[in-house]
Every structure is written in structure tokens, then in C-alpha cells.
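Structure request: Outer membrane efflux protein, Thiomonas intermedia.
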Amino acid sequence: MSASSPAVQHAGMTARSSNRSYAGRLLLAAPLAALLGGCASAPALPPEVTPQTSANALQHRSLLDPRLQRFIALQTGKPHPIAQPWTLQDLSLAALYFHPSLKVSRANAQLAQADLQIARQYPNPSLQFGLKYGAAAGLLAPSPWTVGMAIGLLLQSQAQRTSETSRAEAGVHAAQLLLSGARWTVRDQVQQAYVSLWAAQQRAHLQQRVLEADLALQGRTAARAQAGVDSPLAAALAQQAAQNAALQKSRDIGAEGAAHVALAGAMGLPVAALQGVKIDFSALHSLPTLPDATQLTQLRRKALEQRDDVRAAWQEVLSAQAALRLAQAQSDGGPPSIAPGAERDQGVNRLMLGARIPLPLFNQHQGQIAAARARLSLREALLKQTQARVLVRIEQSETALQAAQDRVRQAEQLIAANRALLNADLAAQHRGLLGPEPALRAQLRLLSTEQAALQARTDQWQALGALQGALEQPILSAARSRPSNSAPPAVMPPTVAPHLSQVVWREE
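Returned structure:
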């Protein structure tokens, strides 16, 4: 056999060395390429919001906003006609679109959803890179450099992942329930402001009639005093009554303007957005009836168990339970981690495997477990506190509604009696048996009774709205209304817009 030449041997060694070097570079570059391939570009930032742009948008809100019309069409199947008066349902829908508290609740729900996404995702690995130089070894080895790379992986137990996910899911459910409860709160505020504006307009109308009657009586009394039939004191008292009526009319006009502002505020709008807007108050022209005792008992129990804030408090309890399980699962020190990797040392490729195991020597998470138990007790106490507050609201609303209904019945009886007296005085005046003064005084008595009845009906509607808001349920029996003898006839209205509970809420 012929020996190989030195040139051929040197070429073979060079080729092997080149192959080993290429293999080492490939071994180190492959994990790095895999990590870089998993990187994603950051999403675009939302448009910047400044106080100036936000204030400008707030001041230019309008019921004619095309986006509001699309939102109403999503809920009801058709947009609101421009010339059609706005009912309580229409105003409530606009409030659900514009009111800032709902935007805050929706943002909280989105934040809870993001927390759930964080809990469900797996932790990212970490890249560990090392470089060493050995001068003494460089004389004997092909290269004095030692290059190493490892990938760190955090090993989470299934119990820990389940606890974190359960906690985040409970947070999502709680945020969604609080959003639903915020919608009830906004609708209740719109309902109260709607009733207050109707009452303010009715009071101003009645006060105008009182002022006209007082002025007429003042003129008749002054004429009788000049003729010597009545005393100057009677004329002065009549003049004072007319002046008081005029001042009260001014106060009622101011109260009507304040009621407009309150309604706009309940809807999340500037008051300019309601200028020129026709509002339909026909739903308040008939009186509601109190649900029977059996139905109220059922509704009360259902509210104590299924109101949105009660269920949200229960979700917070579930979240605290999941947090306690998580703290107990971490009593062994937390999850370990492993770090598989590769190293090229003095021209030799090596595979490595490192591990990190927490050692619970000084504590076993006793403090975290105690804090989790305390938070669980706190959440359970808050659940009971929420139910107690709900019960108080329901009972207060029931009592106020019953008292208002009693006052309405008494006022209707007085209105009927005073109207009969007025008709008798008018008939006597028509026959020439009485002058116009007794009829004017009878008219004033009737108007005073109608003002009291209006206040009683206002209290009744507001108490009914407060009761339905406390129950967070439509009171079905209250929809069967009875006509009022002291109000113009109207179609049978729904109480506090129970049709709102039938709307399927959809976002744009």
C-alpha cells in the first residue's frame, strides 16, 4: 500500500475541521433562529386622546349622530326617525351609547379579558448565552474560545395553571356582570330624569293656570273693594296671592330647565343636544299598579340571588378561592425550570442540560396563603354586604311606592270632590245665583289638589322606577295600568320601559 502524501493528509484534516466548525455554528444558530422566528411585531398604537379632543367631542355630541342611529338600529332593527318624538326607550338607548360610565365598564371588561389571555398563555423561554476564552488551552486545542447557548424553560404545574386561569375567568365574569349592572344604573338614572322633566313641565302648566285664576280673582276683588263690597285687606291678600303665583311660576320654569340639564347629564350629553328635541311622555299618562305580594316575594328572592352586582360579588369569591388554591400550589417554592443547550469547547461540541429547582427552606408560602385566606373571607363578607344593600333598596322602594299610591288615591278623591264643587259653583253662576269669585276660588282649590296629585304621581313613578332598578327586573304586573281621572287619556304604557330588558344588546 502506498502511503498518503502529507498534502493529502493536511487537506483531509482541514476538511474535517471545517465540517466540525460548520456543524457547531449550525448547532448554535438553530435555536437562535427559532427564537427570532417567534417574535411578532408590536401592534399599532391607538390614536392619542388629549383633553382638548375629548372636550371637543363631548360638546359636539348629538342625537343625530349617524353612529348612534346605527347603534339604535342594531338594538331595535331600525334607526330612529328624525321627526319622531323620543320615547323613554329611545332616550335609554342613547344613554347606553353615550354615557361615559359604560365606556369605563366596557374598558374594565376588556382588561379582565386581557388578564384571562395572559393567564392562558405559556411563559416564554429565555435564551442564555456564554463566551469563555482559555489562553493556556489555545496552545493545544484548535480554538481557545468556548461558546455556549442554552434555552431556559419554566415548568408550570397543571394545578398552578388551572388556578390562574380560574381566577382570571372569574374576573372576566365579574367585569361582564358589572357592565350589565352599569347598564341598569344608567337606565334607572334616565328614567328618574325623564319623570322629573315630565313633572316639571306639568307643574309649570298647572302653575300657569293658578296664576291666571289668581290674577282674575285679584281683579274681581280689587273691583269689589273699590265698590265697597270687599275690604281693602281682601284686595291686598288677593294681590299677594297673585304675586306669589307669579314667583312660583318663575321657579317652576327654572326647575324645568334644570330638569332638562339633568336628563342630558343622565344620557351623557350636553344640554344643547336636547334643544329642539321632542320627548314623548305618553307612557306617564296612566298610573301603574303595585305587583301582588306573591310576585314581589319571588322578584325579591330572585334579585338577592341573581342581580348583576350579587353575581359579580360571587365571581369575586370564586376568584379569591382560585387565588387561595394558587398560593397553596406554590407552597413548594414555585415552578422549577430547565435549560437545555449546546456548547462548543476547544473545537468539541457538547450538549448540556441545566435545571433550577426552588428550595422552600425558609418559608413554605405561609404568608401568601394567609393573605389569600383573608382575601377570601373579605370577598365572602362583601357578598353578604351587597345582598344586604340590595334588600334595603328593595324594601325602601316598596314602602315608597305603596305610600305614593295611597296619596294618589286620596288626591283623586279630593279632585273628584273639588271638581263637583266647581261645577256646582259654575252652574249657580250661570243661573245668576253667584258671582264669579266663588267659582274662581273653587278653581284654585281644584288646581291645588291637582298639584298635590301630580306630586304623588311623580313620587309613584319614581318609586316604581327605583323598585325596578333595585330588582334589576321588569315588573310585569305593573304594565297593566289603570287610567287616571286627573290625567289625559293615553295608551297603556310599560313601566320603566320593561321593553329595554328584551333588547339584545349588540356592540358596533
